[in-house]
């Protein structure tokens, strides 16, 4: 059973699993708090096929700063490597 991390973590089990894989607390919390981050089956879609506006929304969700000045290619790179 996963430790209860309080209201700041939505999915305690996912958070603990990500921490065990070596992710930082910040990254594990961000992923555990995203409602669609753990969907399986390739439902997320490829980043290359998304519009710049969709990529901006994704960047906002995961906390990337300066997205409004980025080109689409730069957004894709930052999202993949965040």
UniProtKB/TrEMBL annotation:
Species this protein is from: Parapedobacter deserti
Q: Could you tell me which residue ranges the Rho termination factor-like N-terminal domain spans?
A: 53-79
Q: Short name of one Pfam family for this protein?
A: Rho_N
Q: Where is this region: Disordered?
A: 1-51
What is the name listed in the Swiss-Prot or TrEMBL entry for this protein? Rho termination factor N-terminal domain-containing protein
Q: What is the lineage of its organism?
A: Bacteria, Pseudomonadati, Bacteroidota, Sphingobacteriia, Sphingobacteriales
Gene3D superfamilies assigned = 1.10.720.10
| Compositional bias of kind Basic and acidic residues | 1-29
Report the transmembrane regions from the record.
none
* Superkingdom field: Bacteria
InterPro entries given for it?
DUF7218 (IPR055642), Rho-like_N (IPR011112), Rho_N_sf (IPR036269)
């Amino acid at each position: 059973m996963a430790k209860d991390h309080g209201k700041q973590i939505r999915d305690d089990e996912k958070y603990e699993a990500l921490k065990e894989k070596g992710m930082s607390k910040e990254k594990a919390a961000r992923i555990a708090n995203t409602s669609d981050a753990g969907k399986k089956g390739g439902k997320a879609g490829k980043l290359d096929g998304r519009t710049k506006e969709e990529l901006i929304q994704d960047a906002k969700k995961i906390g990337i700063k300066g997205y409004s000045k980025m080109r689409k290619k730069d957004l894709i790179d930052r999202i993949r490597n965040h």
